[in-house]
């Protein structure tokens, strides 16, 4: 009997299969995407979260290649962490390669990595798999889905997508190719579930273009626009409108400057020469002829728009004639930071347009009616939802069933589930490790739930350190204990409380009597100090007693 | 010349005038509401944020009374902190008194406080002010606005409100009374701005009633519903539907149990006897005859729904036949916690209805068209927006101007601004203190930005303590230094790093040579250790060197 196809989502936080998906047949395995997640607030100090690749590392030689659907961080950000463990070829479209190479250079992996640019329609043969990229509409150019031919039949892996009949830059989802695969008989559809909660259709980018053009046309002063730095089509839209209204464009913020330069060099951004001006020349240029494109759509603390909002940007001071447009929506978790900027921009007197009050952004993912179109075109034997939280996968499964799929063919996978598909059907056969792997500085995986709990304790209560030096022969204090606190109480209350602790410790250790029992006293001293402080403040700082025999 | 009327919003976080509003005439002052704000995530360890009352405390005898519009925390939660500084009479409607008394009891202030229940339509004379409560529709019973007669003319202070023509419990906004005041000539309208971003009308509670009734009627198993514990009308709605579908009601979660008991005792909840059953009897009662009303609409970590989602509730284990309804929306900042629960409920197999996919909640605040009705009825000489972030106040001012008010009569105030109104007009005359006052445990106001920065540092990087005992005569180490860390690195990396620090410190202090200069070495040691650790880990823990002369 021939082997089963195995489908394994890995690595992340309920954003199933967004970070990485493995397709395995016999001894061969390919990975689709290798993304990161950004940490929640409670992942204190964590820089990013990467997929758990321990299953791959059981036998790295089985992994033959990585295919990247598009260049967003949640699809490519984890690639360096994978490649430094197992050096396999990477295949992607051209812009994605440009974005990946920036990362590989940062990680000193550029030279040893083999990244191959493919075109949509090209087929890459890797062992038992033949992988073809097809064009999809999404919020970055060169976004693709994959048609993965396997001995059991073809898989359609959509990646992130939506259906936009009037996209910018002709970035259509290739419905014709999907229909062909469907007509030939598809084994599996793995489709984006991010916006399955939303009824109807995601509006076209054209609606945003109209709103932005009206806002730029109506403005008397400067127009300052932020969006995702990778949303090249939106940037093109702003440039087109600036050309039309005879304004010049200034770009500020590192990732925006890098992306505009890279996208221009690769031909993804088109503009008349002289359109882009240096931000240092801005103050010599009339406000009414100025458009600023900047970073900061997510309220990132050091981004250009945040600096403008706080009055600390080197070249832009917000004033009453400014129109500021946030052509973006806050990613869940960033709402507070984004609205803090909006508040500050209002306070500085600017006119501010943002997604709650104007059509300045559309989503990059398919809503229910778009998903139904793809399901009906592909008509797969099996379905699995990818991209989205668990509830989205459940709803997407229900959507598939509502279109006529039988219940045992519509499958919900969580990270680490191994789905086996063969002639007899599909089933979750086993589970492999798929934990959160936290990156903090140079450390990968050393930060765990216990360490995060320690950090949360420090964060909420602060700490108190008590250092007592005792004579090793007599067991008595040789001098008054040192007591310090950090993050615990304000300066007015601190001296009295710390003196109290000093007195308490002196009483416990300094009195006459027998030699003290160290291990016993260490714990009781900690509890005694904690109880004393809680009684006085109703706070529970971390108490760290240090006893030194000298 | 007669004195000006002074209007002073105090105390909170851009949620202007929600926490507390002062109206002042000559030597007399009244306060409207005394609320709290819940802390942002970055206010580490802070329990709540209260208004800054230092302006009142300059001459507390001027404050004559506090009027409470309704019983939500952001309007009454700060009352004990005010009353313990200045004991003044409190006036409010009946349910508000019930909620306030719970707080006063907790703060041991119940006996010394004089809380007077008034009815809508009653007028309370306090010096130059005559204050009348009028009914408004909002997400809690006994919500009121105030008509405050002053020597310069009447003020309409709406409090939180919406206009609902088909409310439950007949809780209408008294448009007729507003028209009367408008016809007589109003001096000032101070109106809720929370939802001025939203076009059109806020839907009626009736729509929620229909959705909930359909969900309860369609369910085969248990129905578990969470909502705000103060949203008594919603609880009544659930009880009515349970009666209709022959189900019994079980209540779980402390604040929900307390509020249901209190509201039943005061007559705000009506139900046939025997409807409410003890949660301990639930497992002997058929699922198809069960409705559970519980806390946890905001994902609070210890609330009943959170425990159910985590599988740790004493009486309720979620299973596949359960329908769970979140009849609420996440308050900004709580999205992650709420969706974490939703995810876990889906994972447990429940059917889950929440505001993004079903009409299970409506807002408690007026949208644009409702605000316009109030503006047109009251037709005030002056307008000031209350309740909402700064951007809402700006938009509300623009709404007032769009209805014909001249620009200098429509005013935006921030906390601490003193608006003076007299025969000649209105102007911001001065500013009084209106800082954030943080409550953490028993400490009020000692937690400040510096302490929060210290806590954030500990939170994100952890800490390393180095204790070195040196001989006071020779200046040399008397034994190897002690090094400890907390929240810094995982257990695999910790020993090697801390040994490295120990070696570094020993090298610095233990070598031969001259006596060391303490103050100098303290700083350089800290920097040396920090540099060593950053180089090894790319993390920057707080380094706390303790040097003891023995």
Structural commentary:
The structure is a homodimer of 550-residue chains. The first copy, chain A, is α/β, with parallel strands linked by helices and 550 residues long. Chain A has 15 helices and 27 strands. In chain A, the strands form 5 sheets. An 8-stranded mixed sheet of chain A has the order 7-6-5-3-2-1-21-22. In chain A, helix 5 (175-184) links the parallel strand 11 and strand 12. In chain A, helix 5 crosses helix 11 (368-378). The longest helix of chain A is centred in the C-terminal third of the chain and has 20 residues, at 518-537. The radius of gyration of chain A is 29 Å and the shape is globular. The N and C termini of chain A lie far apart (74 Å). Chains A and B meet through helix 10, helix 12, helix 13, strand 25 and strand 26 of A and helix 10, helix 12, helix 13, strand 25 and strand 26 of B.
